[in-house]
Here is the input.
Amino acid sequence: MSLDSVLQAFANHHGMDPLEAEEGRYRIVIDDIFVVECFPVSGQVYFYGEIGLLPSKIDVRESVLKQMLKKNLGLMMSQRSSLCVSQEDKLAVSFRCPLQGVTQQSVEGAVAEMVNHLEYFSDMLAVLTSSQNSFASPALPTMIMP
Here is the structure.
């Protein structure tokens, strides 16, 4: 089954309009919030989603990237996705899987994993950038011991 057929079956199953390839990329929009792009290259299917724009201040950008990459390293041990930076300085999540044998179920799993990671890293980016821009806002909840 072709990637186009698998993606059309995915869209149909979820009540979406048929997916159209734009410049070789399919855009899957979930909950009007998350956009997952899917495209084949050299026998692989790539899934890609942007999280948000990196901070423009160099020191804030470095701090945010370090913290997010530390979390990403731990996730790479058990997950397929990885953080990356786009040419437009946007933080993104991507991963790939073999094109051969791709099924609707594998696309279901891939899109679900991507959305989970997009949500997680979007929230993390928001917390880190807001804590870097304020003076007394902790990045994580504080536990007060008696």
About this structure: The chain is about 40% helix and 25% strand. Residues 135-143 have pLDDT under 50 and may be disordered.
